[in-house]
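Reopening closed ticket. The problem is back. First fold of the pair:
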Amino acid sequence: MGKLEEIIKSKIIRLAKMEVRKFSVPLKRDVFQLKKTVSRLSKAVLLLERFTALQQKELRKKKIILEASPEEVKLSRFSPRLFRSLRKRLGITQKELATLCGVTLGAVQSWESGKFRPKDEKKKAIVGLRKLNRSDVKKLLKKD
């Protein structure tokens, strides 16, 4: 009887192994495919992260445009005394103010003497400058 038990046991083991193989082989293939897909996606994410880092670096290099909302510009006052006090508060010269606003030195001198008033697009830059402190202005000037 021992021989018969061994034969039945070996048959059961063999059949069990075949059944397990039926399910495990396709699963192994699926796992392999998933690993390849994850690897490809990881490489794509890495490339995108590098690209994003480069784009952010480029954005930081670009000139910052000083702007303000139309409401802020409308509510703001512009007088020769205010231009001088803004320059003194920021610790910049007329030439540096002209550089930051994108105008000539003569335009800034005209604003401060009261001969002319800044145009609307320059008013946005001036109101934007009012929001900054000395260190921010120095950083902007270093970029130029």
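Second fold of the pair, where the issue appears:
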Amino acid sequence: MKSLCVYCSSSDRLEPKYYEAATRVGAEIARRQWALVYGGGKSGLMGAVARGTKDGGGKVVGVIPEFMKVRELAFTEADELISVLTMRERKMLMETRADAFVALPGGWGTLEEILEIMTLAHLDVLRKPVVFFNQDGYYDDLLAMFDRIVRENFMRQTVRGKYAVARTVEEIFTLIDGWNHTVSDKQWFETR
């Protein structure tokens, strides 16, 4: 069974469109008979993607630090809920359990998690699909920063082949299915 690691917000103060898209991502994970690997939370987009997966009959694997579990933030309906002590342990376990990664809209935690995965991909330590879901241009500014990093020679053009950008839920899965880690400088899976 393939597993998709989803990084996303835990905020309950977002516009409804973000929860709807996260739910659709979860439903598509279930439809494909993949497993969801995620941060184990019940709120925000985390909860929406977990419920979308679970409601579709899919497998949900949550990895949650003990301090969050104590605060009753865990999605207790998960098929597997793994408790860890630190955020570092959480990230490592999610990384090893996943076949692909997607960042839905999120804050500091989401960015920190996906950028670590991108760093591992850049160093060729990790050769798995990495996708940004650029819903309604949410990641436009970050992607512009990536362009500047390349333009000013902090990184080579080949870094662009280490991640993909999807505008729709459907594109996330198309990009994962068509992933080719060995890309040249001229190839770039961006569809923004």
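Update: turned out to be a display glitch only; the data is intact. The CA atoms of residues 105 and 139 lie 8 Å apart. The chain has a mean pLDDT of 93. Please close again.
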